[in-house]
Amino acid sequence: MDLKPRFTLEVFAGGMVVLSALLAILVGLLEPRLLWVLIPLAALVALAVLLLARRMRRGLARVLQCESFENSQAQLSLGALALPVALLSGKTLVWYNTPFRQRILADEDRLLAPVGKVLCGLDLHQCGEPAGQVLEHEGRKYNIFASATAGREALTVLYLVDETDLRQRAAEYEATRPAYMIIEIDAYAEQLAELKDSEKARVLEGINRVLETYIGRTTGFLQRVSNARYIAVVEERHMKEMVAAKFDVLDKIRALEGEVNVTLSIGVGRGGDTLRQCEEMARQSLDMALGRGGDQAAVKTPEGFAFYGGVSRSVEKRSRVKSRIVAKALCDLIRQADSVLIMGHRMSDLDCVGAAIGVLRICKGLDAPAAIVVRREATLAQSVLEEFQAAGLGEDFISPEVALDGMTDNTLLLVVDTHIKGLLESGDVYRKCRQVAVIDHHRKAVGHIDNAVLFFHEPYASSTCELVSELLQYVEGQQFRPTSLEAEALLAGIMLDTRNFGIHTGVRTFEAAAYLRRMGAMTERVKLLFNSSLQEYTAKSNLVENADIYMGCAVSVSGELPPDMAVAVPQAANDLLTIQGVGASFVAVQQGSGVNISARSMGAVNVQVIMEQLGGGGHLTMAGAQLKDTTIDEAEKRIRQAIARYRQEQAEEEARSGKKR
Ligand SMILES: Nc1ncnc2c1ncn2[C@@H]1O[C@@H]2COP(=O)(O)O[C@H]3[C@@H](O)[C@H](n4cnc5c(N)ncnc54)O[C@@H]3COP(=O)(O)O[C@H]2[C@H]1O
Ligand SMILES: [Mn+2]
Known about the structure:
Residues 176-302 form the GGDEF domain. Helix content is 44%, strand content 20%. It contains 25 helices and 23 strands.
């Protein structure tokens, strides 16, 4: 039956016709007179055969469709089924029931037609899978299932389930799921609250207008719930568009003209099971957006967070970031991770190791497996590392190689005291970690980590240790109380970056120090951590002695120092500042084929800007740079050029503002 049954039937009928025609011709040749009778007779027979063949096929179809097929129970049961059902032999349609004829064949008989012509794109193999094949036919969507008998003359039963309505509803359901948005005006209290009422109204009018248009395009609604806050609920189909456009409303708000630069932070909860769940997710997202510095949108779905906007804009972040919120977010991240690695910058110093020790305390309090990644052979915090080793805590510090070995897909990397990829202790560890969080106080620079789920960046803090001390105060519980040793490491970090509370100190710096003192930090023991060896001291004195004064800046250069003398460089730069008439100091030392530079100031000179000219960075008062493939003479020339250029720009700026600093 498999071998073209249609062909067989037609050939048989045709063959009979041809045969009778031949016979008629033969008889006609033998007896021409009979021709007059034979020709009409042959035509009659041919007509009868054709008619019969047609009737036969129709009759066959009717029989197969089975009103009278009593002895076949299977056919009977399929015939009465409300679903369209068809029977195939190979790929040929050999039987179908009435619903199939009506809905798929448009009430025509297509028996023995190839099924591919009737249902375009049908894939019998896929129909045999448990999920079946979804096919569109005449504007309706069918899920088609097949079950086949094995063997050469394979028979297949096709069941067509009309899922048009179901699928339409499912798509509509997905598209109308609510997404919850919380929109907050950044630093409202600091900025807008102090404006004149008329000006404030103007700024708010601008914001309202932009937001109303933005939400007005959707089927959702917008509601201002407090001075600085709006909520909005929009349908998933519109949320999709907003995400695709990367929340361009942020740009529109930033472009508003006015006395102050307003920016927004947006938290979105999307894809939750309930509206309440979405609201909760939106709140977490807003916390994230604010914790990363604002001026951005954070979207939380059950899969995790995604962030839009807010990257590397040079607008200064004015909002005082809430440490409490960050502490909570940080704890959540640590809890979700298999293990935690804490890592600072290359040539780690007391601030970065101290901060790492503080963060490790939080991990320990949460019972999360955690370690600090540090190269003990290249560090400026040897004193702290030795003390912890002596206290039996050496295992908390591991090398990048060990860290790489013990890592899983779900390891969280906490970067402290830097946010620049190129300065990390180990780039490999960073690249292998999927989840990264950053805690830093350096001014945002190029090459910053851009995939952090949490970016706690406070350029106004004195040190990373100050930030971590604040975080420690916001996690509640006895288990988060730092030991006196840990408190001393944190205090050492603050003292390093403030040069013993000499510069860059704010109210919060002293509050953090007071907290650490309460936790048992002893200043006299902290001071010991800064003591240097006689060799280091001599190296430092030599550097100080060799300094030149150039345009009010002390510049000292030197050939290569022994590797363990590295700390003499920043210390010499610090000491040079104590000389009268020196506004900034620059100490450059050959290291391998490159040159390392430490720059310091008391605040009147912005050494960060000068070091940025050389590809470095840091802070207003404390910065550095690493020059590659440079001789020390060339480095000195470039430092002097950078100073000259800075002085010139300074003079121009003073001329413009018409006042002397
Ligand atoms: N290419 C680049 N791009 C962007 N930023 C760059 C950079 N190169 C350096 N910086 C930043 O400049 C700051 C100064 O670095 P520096 O090595 O002179 O000075 C370091 C360090 O050498 C120095 N230090 C460490 N131990 C010390 C000790 N026992 N006594 C005195 N100073 C110490 O304290 C300073 C701590 O500074 P901090 O980590 O906050 O910030 C650093 C660093 O993050
Ligand atoms: Mn540091």
